[in-house]
Amino acid sequence: MLRQFIPGAYKILNGHNILTGGSGRTSVKNIHTLSRSFQIVVQSSQELDSREENVVDTLYNGLLSSNRACLARSITLTESTHPRKRLQARSLLKKALQHCKQCQQNDNSFSFRIGLSGPPGAGKSTFLENMGKFLTSQGEKIAVLAVDPSSTTNGGSLMGDKTRMQELSRDLNAFIRPSPTSGHLGGVTRSTNEAIIMCETAGYKTVFIETVGVGQSEYAVADMVDMFVVLIPPAGGDELQGLKRGIMEHSHLVVVNKADGDLMEAAMRMQYEYTSSLKFMRPISPNWRPKVLKVSSLTKEGLPELWAVMQEFHQTMLRTGELLETRRKQQRVWMWNYITQHIMQVFREDPRVKRDIHEMEKNVEQGCMTAGEAAEILLHHFVPDKMF
Q1: Would you give the DSSP letter of residue 314?
Q2: What order of strands is seen across the sheet that includes strand 227-232?
Q3: How far apart are CA 182 and CA 155, in angstroms?
Q4: CA torsion sign, 289 to 294 to 300 to 304?
Q5: Eight-class DSSP state of 282
Q6: Are residues 160 and 148 in contact, defined by beta-carbon separation less than 8 angstroms?
Q7: What distance in Å separates the CA atoms of residue 152 and residue 154, rounded to the nearest whole number?
Q8: What is the dihedral angle through the alpha carbons of 46, 47, 53, 57, rounded to the nearest 10 degrees?
């Protein structure tokens, strides 16, 4: 057991004669000593040393002073998979959550989390830059978490969103953070949810989360935002075919972008057709009917009206108490998402699974074994007493 959970600890304890007591034999007394030592090792492995605590305190104080460099480092910390870094991130998140909770209780100010989805080519980055510049000119501090698709070959990501938002990236009242999808379908991961908390602690009360735009799977972002917005281009073909039920029924607002020039007529037609289609869908909220608006990121026409509707939604959700209730449910959802991600990581790192996983994959590839049979064998290695 000790070998499994803390590699190297078994050798260390045995090297100090804790197992055998120097006699070469393992006694009951030695086992009890081992158990106490094991608990000490586990407890110490879950505690931060003084250097790590100083790092956490420095980052937390930087967040409170809206230091952009500390905010970037904090988000990087939450994205790390290193065990010690994860421990630091957990401590920092606990402090950040407590601060946000105190702010809500003291001045009753709530942040506004907006998810932005849509097909590739809808103009999400251009829309966000112009919308962001409009909001910062109104005195708002905004953060944009732009998720870029990772390469399935080497895991890298282009991070092109920050490059496209050149003006907004230079704005001192805006913070742009591109993040890789890390292979997660829909583009959002556990670290995305934690990055939102870091941004809010740093004083960014309006947070946009832009998804990669790959299809219906990206409505997963709806589980971490207050308002889910779908951005669509005009003249995209059959509008009813484009009206994907899985993503549209999670939408609070549909925005037809590029409503200018020769595309104005097509944008008006699409606005009318989507408005008619949404009438046949059950609204996601009992206190809000989804709306369809048209804007132009090029001419900035319609952006003030769009922000007014967004503010109306935010106030409605706060007044009815639905915003708080939604966030409570979202936290429960992300607890289970975290468990799912962590279990997969623990499963792959289990030595009994590692021993046979390549052989099982080979048998499945060659058709010697079904995928279900191979999975059951590996799961039985992981949990021997459980039948699958």
Answers
A1: H
A2: 174-180, 142-148, 206-210, 112-117, 227-232, 253-256, 291-294
A3: 7
A4: negative
A5: -
A6: yes
A7: 6
A8: 60
Specify whether the backbone of 139 is left (phi greater than 0), alpha (psi in -120 to 50) or beta. left
Whole-number Å distance between alpha carbons of 147 and 258: 22
* Cβ contacts of 173 within 8 Å, gap of 6 or more: 136, 139, 140, 141, 142
| Token pair belonging to 106 | 């003291």
Question: Angle at Cα 217 formed by Cα 264 and Cα 123, nearest 5°?
Answer: 25
3-state secondary structure at position 152: coil
Are 311 and 206 in contact by the 8 Å Cβ rule? The answer is no
pLDDT digits (tens, 9 = 90+) for 156-191: 444 445 567 888 988 999 999 987 655 444 445 667
| Positions in the chain whose pLDDT score sits under 70 | 1-45, 107-108, 148-163, 180-190, 212-219, 236-246, 387-388
> Phi and psi for 311 in degrees, rounded to 5?
-65, -35
Residues 6+ apart with CB under 8 A from 163: none
The C-alpha atoms of residue 70 and residue 75 are separated, in whole angstroms, by: 9
Phi, psi (deg, nearest 5) at residue 338: -65, -40
Helices 50-64 and 190-201 pack at an angle, to 10 degrees, of 60
